[in-house]
Amino acid sequence: MSAILECRGLVKQYGYRRALNGVNLTIERGKIIGLLGPNGSGKSTLIKLANGLITPTAGEILINGKAPGEESKKIVSYLPDKNYLNEWMTVEQLIKFFYDFYEDFDSHVAMDMLSKLGIGLKERLKNLSKGTKEKVQLILVMSRKAQLYLLDEPIGGVDPAARDYILHTIISNYNENASVIISTHLISDVESILDEVVFISQGQIVLTSSVDEIREQHDKSVDALFREVFKC
Amino acid sequence: MSWEFQSDRPIYAQLMEQIKRRIITGIYPPGEKMPSVRELAAEASVNPNTMQRAFAQLEQEGLLYTQRTSGRFVTEDQQRILEMKTEMADELAKRFLEDMEQLGYNCRQAVEVLERFEKESEKL
Question: Number of A:B CB contacts under 8 A?
Answer without folding.
Answer: 54
